[in-house]
Write a structure and sequence with these properties.
The protein is an alpha+beta fold and 142 residues long. Helices cover 21% and strands 35% of the residues.
Length: 142
């Protein structure tokens, strides 16, 4: 598995008075994509937490290209683009009826149950690494 597609519809509480999705909600959408990607890869975040493993966002970026609007059908593609011994990076591409709306990435660092840096468990690293696609999404290339 190298990518996961999730369909979203912005709700009324996620938009401003002009019907445009308020900027921090893009990171929430990215979390939905990341969670679904991990679940589909057999590495559900909830299962990791039960094992005392946490993944904390240590870097996040969003490039806003066009506004997402209330009740539009949005398509979010999520990919793993890099994996290290203690971190994993996801890239995102959000599309709507008008085309490409935003791109971005998040890098998550692995923590133990005491919130200290830790290595990814080997089985989780293997499952996350199976779908790796190095580099940015095609639309993020210069």
């Amino acid at each position: 598995m190298n990518e996961r597609l999730v369909t979203l519809r912005p709700r009324y509480g996620e938009v401003d008075s002009m019907g445009v999705v308020y900027h921090p909600h893009y990171l929430v959408y990215f979390e939905v994509g990341r969670t679904e990607w991990m679940r589909a890869a057999g590495c559900a975040y909830a299962d990791l937490e039960r094992r005392g493993v946490r993944l904390a966002v240590v870097d996040a970026a969003v490039r806003y290209l066009q506004p997402a609007r209330y009740d539009e059908e949005l398509r979010l593609v999520t990919r793993v683009t890099q994996i290290g011994g203690a971190s994993v990076t996801f890239s995102y591409e959000l599309r709507g009826p008008a085309g490409l709306l935003a791109t971005g990435h998040t890098r998550l660092g692995c923590l133990d149950s005491d919130n200290r840096p830790a290595r990814l468990p080997p089985d989780a690293r293997d499952r996350l690494g199976r779908g790796i696609r190095p580099g940015p999404l095609p639309s993020e290339s210069p």
